[in-house]
Each structure stands twice: as structure tokens, then as C-alpha cells.
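quick q for whoever's on today - can somebody do inverse folding on this one?? i tried earlier but teh output was garbage lol. C-alpha cells:
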């Protein structure tokens, strides 16, 4: 059930699927039972975690099916790093509860490649970080999993939006 919509034209409205505060001590936030959506937008705000990496998995797949590149902007330095055969899209490295992150995943309603077309992390270990990538498994996306390298502290909000 759509709770609200944001932006876009008549055919590209983002519907809020769910918004949750991560359970303290848990290692993941799982959005499951998703009917086919063309796109997903994952938003994190003020999320706090015991370690420093938050990643996104599709269909709870921890196989080496994720390839991505990210750029760090820290002061006057721009660093590009590519990661192939990863077990998730690393979307942020947090170092405080002030971190915010966004990720847009496209082509989620068919068996073709899934694209991470936009990912941005603000704050944390690096001042700004941008992400782009591809998920090479062939299934329609019915789960979006936000996983930490440690456990969540029970703070902040993780929201999932979709476009049908």
C-alpha cells in the first residue's frame, strides 16, 4: 500500500513502501514480499551502527553478483575505486549518526541486469561518496536488504520507495 508519493511525472511517482527504525542489535533491515517495481529508492537518515559499512543486497543474495564503482570527495581529493565480484553494494561508511545515504536501483521488475544508477553518502568517514553499479543475477527483485558490517543501534530511519 502506498503511503505517500514524491516527485516525478504521472508514470514515475515514488511511492513510500515502508519506513523503519532499525532494531537495536540487528544486522539488517529487510524489505520483503515486494511486488514487481521498476525502481527502488533506499534512503537512510541518521542511521547509527556499531561498525562502519552499510550495504544493499537484492533478494538477500550474498553471492559475488555485485560490481560497482565509487568516488570519494574529501577536501580537494577525488578518488575512484572499482569493486568487482562483491557480495553487496557498499553504499556508505558511517562514523556518526549524522550520516545520510540514498540509492536508486533500476530495472528491478525483469530478469535483466539491475542497475545502481545513483548512490550518495553524506558525512561519515568520507565527506561525500557517489556510487554506480550493476547486479548480475537474473531474478525479479522481491527483497531489498540493508545490511551492516556490524549491528544497528536502533537510531535513525531507513525508507524504501518504489516506482511500479
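ok took a stab at it. sequence:
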Amino acid at each position: 500500500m502506498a503511503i505517500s508519493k514524491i516527485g516525478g511525472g504521472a508514470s514515475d511517482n515514488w511511492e513510500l513502501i515502508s519506513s523503519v527504525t532499525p532494531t537495536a542489535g540487528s544486522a539488517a533491515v529487510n524489505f520483503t514480499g515486494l511486488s514487481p517495481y521498476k525502481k527502488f529508492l533506499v534512503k537512510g537518515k541518521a542511521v547509527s551502527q556499531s561498525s562502519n559499512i552499510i550495504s544493499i543486497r537484492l533478494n538477500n543474495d550474498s553471492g559475488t553478483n555485485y560490481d560497482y564503482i565509487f568516488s570519494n570527495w574529501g577536501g580537494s581529493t577525488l578518488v575512484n575505486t572499482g569493486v568487482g565480484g562483491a557480495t553487496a553494494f557498499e553504499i556508505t561508511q558511517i562514523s556518526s549518526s549524522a550520516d545520510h545515504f540514498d540509492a536508486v536501483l533500476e530495472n528491478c521488475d525483469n530478469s535483466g541486469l539491475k542497475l545502481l544508477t545513483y548512490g550518495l553518502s553524506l558525512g561519515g568517514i568520507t565527506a561525500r561518496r557517489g556510487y554506480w553499479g550493476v547486479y548480475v543475477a537474473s531474478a525479479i527483485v522481491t527483497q531489498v536488504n540493508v545490511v551492516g558490517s556490524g549491528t544497528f543501534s536502533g537510531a535513525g530511519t531507513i525508507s524504501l520507495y518504489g516506482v511500479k
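fwiw The radius of gyration is 15 Å. also The chain has no helices and 13 strands. so keep that in mind when u check it
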